[in-house]
């Protein structure tokens, strides 16, 4: 069990560790102070770089697993035929140089999420750089019509024209504590700056109404719920599967499989963005007694070893998003940008 998993168990109440929880609480206050200082500096001291083309930030106030990247993908496809540039930090990539993702680029060089975005939206320019302002200028040079800033809410160096915040209906406010005592990476008060709020994981109209009520304490922005759709559900429905993933929210992945009627006979989780080696996948497959196949997310699939051969097939779960409640708000927003 990794340190990340142990802390998550404490945050979510599965493990009682009062002393550790108290220490995390102190660290949480330090993190909160750092975030406040970061925003104060950009609000009152440092300028943000403004581009000559629209910048749309897709971010969140809770660490990991809210669905930012799938929604960025949704927007990139929705804005077609405009020329879209997607800017990403490329979290946990091995290279530190600026990368414009091309066919020959590897996931290790650019990061798994930028690599996946480039695969899914081949017409978009996916630019990876920790300095999003520099990447934004590069997007202009590449003649982009607009910029999508993936995971951009805390990145204040680049001015954004539209701030979109993605939230998880099942944990809107990250267990009510800042990292590492909870999962908040930013204050809920910053929701007042959002022009649009996207809520994933909504079960029904009543669930959406409850989420709306809580969000309205902080923001009057239009709210749209997104439904997760499994595009290759017929390949997975009612199968006995062994699931492996390296994502921020494995529970959501497992729940998606269960909604398809899958029987998860074995599972393996690693920290977000971590790769899987061939030998560990071979051991996992050998231990998956009764499984008809191995399943993983698309983000994990792009990092699989080349020429991997196992006695069980690997089926990546292919997902997309579709708006449900508040659909008209999102459609209006997209049309405004496209005009």
Q: How would you portray this structure in words?
A:
This protein is an alpha/beta fold. It has 2 domains: 55-228 and 322-338, P-loop containing nucleotide triphosphate hydrolases (Rossmann fold, 3-Layer(aba) Sandwich); 233-317, Rossmann fold. The protein is 36% helix and 20% strand. It contains 12 helices and 13 strands. A 9-stranded mixed β-sheet has the order 3-4-2-5-1-6-7-8-13, with helices on both faces.
List keywords for this structure.
339 residues, alpha/beta, Rossmann fold, 9-stranded mixed β-sheet, 4-stranded parallel β-sheet, 12 helices, 13 strands, 36% helix, globular
CATH C-level of the largest domain: Alpha Beta
Rounded to the nearest angstrom, the radius of gyration is 20 Å
Q: Which shape, going by the Cα principal axes?
A: globular
DSSP strand tally:
13
Largest sheet: 9 strands, mixed
Structural class: alpha/beta
Strand order of the largest sheet: 3-4-2-5-1-6-7-8-13
Tally of distinct domains? 2
- Can you tell me the CATH architecture of the largest domain? 3-Layer(aba) Sandwich
- Helical fraction equals 25-40%
Low-confidence stretches: none
Number of helices: 12
- Give the overall average pLDDT: 95
CATH topology of the largest domain: Rossmann fold
Beta-strand content bin: 15-25%
CATH superfamily of the largest domain: P-loop containing nucleotide triphosphate hydrolases
């Amino acid at each position: 069990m990794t340190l990340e998993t142990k802390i998550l168990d404490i945050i979510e109440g599965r493990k009682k560790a009062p002393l550790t929880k108290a220490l995390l609480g102190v660290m949480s206050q330090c993190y909160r102070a750092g975030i406040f200082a970061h925003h104060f500096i950009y609000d009152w001291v440092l300028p943000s770089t403004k581009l000559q083309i629209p910048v749309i930030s897709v971010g969140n106030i809770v660490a990991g697993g809210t669905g930012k990247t799938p929604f960025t993908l949704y927007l990139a496809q929705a804005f077609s035929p405009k020329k879209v540039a997607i800017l990403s930090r490329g979290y946990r990539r091995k290279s530190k140089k600026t990368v414009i993702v091309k066919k020959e680029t590897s996931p290790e060089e650019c990061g798994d999420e930028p690599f996946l975005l480039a695969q899914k939206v081949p017409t978009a320019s996916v630019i990876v750089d920790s300095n999003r302002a520099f990447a934004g200028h590069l997007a202009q040079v590449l003649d982009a019509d607009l910029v999508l800033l993936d995971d951009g809410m805390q990145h204040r160096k680049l001015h954004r024209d539209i701030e979109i915040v993605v939230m998880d209906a099942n944990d809107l406010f990250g267990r009510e504590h800042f990292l590492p005592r909870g999962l908040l990476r930013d204050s809920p008060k910053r929701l007042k700056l959002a022009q649009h709020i996207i809520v994933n994981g909504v079960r029904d109209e009543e669930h959406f109404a409850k989420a709306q009520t809580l969000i309205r304490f902080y923001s009057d922005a239009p709210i749209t719920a997104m439904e997760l759709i499994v595009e290759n559900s017929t390949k997975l429905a009612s199968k006995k599967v062994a699931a492996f993933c390296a994502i921020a929210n494995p529970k959501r992945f497992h729940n998606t499989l269960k909604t398809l009627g899958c029987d998860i006979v074995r599972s393996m989780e690693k920290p977000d963005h971590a790769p899987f080696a061939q030998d560990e996948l071979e051991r996992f497959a050998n231990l998956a007694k009764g499984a008809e196949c191995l399943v993983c997310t698309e983000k994990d699939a792009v990092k699989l070893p080349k020429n991997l051969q196992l006695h069980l097939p690997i089926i990546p779960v292919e997902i997309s998003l579709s708006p449900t409640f508040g659909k008209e708000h999102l459609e209006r927003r997209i049309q405004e940008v496209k005009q």
